[in-house]
């Protein structure tokens, strides 16, 4: 089949070119609010080269086993400061890990860390918690191919709650361009 008209040639060009967004970590902050319960051994944002960055963290738990955990996560977009954007959800982590299909929003965000974390089983947690090398490539795939987000600066803020007390706050800053 031959394309003679411009719209047809643009369509063919679009099928050969892959247009995708680019994500970049801009900051990663971890704060323990109860150092007798848990503390961060490390919380790092590492740039291997210009195009490959990742974040890693390790939380030391001092009062194990932990049998009651909730996570409040909110997504914020920068508009003259960070403002709420789409999601602010609190999930009972122990129940969620028993049946991930019950909460599709939590499942979408859990899929960011499930392959790089040891938080892949139900309660109790009787070991240190680790995220190992969450890369911008993994984030890029999820925010462009799975569920598209508009360009901008974003912050994911997570409040980790054990026994109904906020124990830690983690903030991940990302630019999507």
From TrEMBL:
User: Would you say which domain of life the source belongs to?
Assistant: Eukaryota
* Designated name of the protein: Uncharacterized protein
Record organism = Drosophila suzukii (Spotted-wing drosophila fruit fly)
